[in-house]
Design goal:
single chain; alpha/beta; 8-stranded parallel beta barrel; two-stranded antiparallel ribbon; 11 helices; 12 strands; 37% helix; globular; pantothenate biosynthesis; transferase; 3-methyl-2-oxobutanoate hydroxymethyltransferase activity; EC 2.1.2.11
Length: 290
């Protein structure tokens, strides 16, 4: 038996509930790709809170606590200011709010690049304090030794190559990668390097489609695309982008709802009722029983 958490929607509290462990594992994710092909693509979305995780969990194979929370939750200009403490706090919440999906947590900028030992100290803290199953880190060949160091010590790693947001200053922006022959070859080499180092999967972001297809076909590990190709072994999006929480819609995003409009309309109706004193009504106040 394993202790999981059920979110009581009447109180918004996570209550520990003994239940058989049914959460997807790293080996289970790896087994979805057989002889270089994945019949049923893997589904991954970002999640940052317990309630969000609870809603997304039944539909996903993996939930990523992404450092994109810097922009989505905290209104920061990029992912660079995100701290390890922020990632741990949100990672623990997502683990508490989920049951089925494999939960992995992004390693924030500055928490792993200095050395494999630094990466291990940060990653081991993330896993111990959140209960997540794996970490994700950005970088290709430069991070191969670090990925090997972590995986050899029992920390599963999802790699991230192509457009790497933590390196946005070096890359000069968020444009698609792989346009030149030189960059095409480098990203291919990066993908092969992280796979050889022991990454159980790799996120491939913002690359030309032909490159995404070539990388997916050349690796034995699952390739999770974002702004890449439907040919990839799975897809990931920032949940808030998919749900329509922001006006801007990146090229690689399909908006499945317009939650921002729903929230705005609800707030407008609430404000009007407060101002004309039609809320609260008798149904929302406490009165002595007769």
């Amino acid at each position: 038996m394993s202790t999981t958490f059920t979110l009581d929607t009447s109180t918004s509290r996570a209550n520990p509930t003994p239940a058989p462990m049914k959460r997807l594992t790293v080996p289970a994710i790896q087994r979805r790709k057989v002889e270089g092909k994945t019949d049923e693509p893997l589904v991954m979305l970002t999640a940052y809170t317990a309630r969000q995780a609870q809603l997304l969990d039944p539909h996903c194979d993996m939930l990523l606590v992404g450092d994109s929370l810097g922009q989505v939750i905290y209104g920061l200009p990029s992912t660079l200011p995100v701290t390890l403490d922020m990632m741990i706090a949100h990672g623990a919440a997502v683990v508490r709010g989920s049951y089925h999906s494999l939960v992995l947590v992004d390693m924030p900028f500055g928490s792993y690049e200095a050395s494999p030992a630094q990466a291990f100290a940060s990653a081991s803290r993330v896993m111990a304090e959140t209960g997540c199953a794996a970490v994700k880190l950005e970088g290709g060949q430069a991070m191969a030794d670090t990925i090997a160091f972590l995986t050899q010590r029992g920390i599963p790693v999802m790699a991230h190559v192509g457009l790497t947001p933590q390196a946005v200053n070096a890359l000069g922006g968020y444009g698609a990668r792989g346009k030149s022959q030189e960059e095409h070859a480098k990203i291919m080499d990066d993908a092969r390097a992280v796979a050889s180092a022991g990454a159980f999967a790799v996120v491939l972001e913002g690359v030309l489609e032909d490159l995404a297809v070539a990388i997916t076909d050349s690796l034995d590990i699952p390739v999770i695309g974002i702004g890449a190709s439907a040919h990839c072994d799975g897809q990931v999006l920032v949940a808030e982008d998919m749900l329509g929480m922001f006006e801007r819609v990146p090229r690689f995003v399909k908006r499945y709802e317009n939650i921002a409009e729903t929230i705005s309309n609800a707030a407008e109706r609430y404000a009007a009722e407060v101002r004309d004193r039609s809320f609260p009504t008798a149904d929302q106040v406490y009165r002595p029983k007769k």
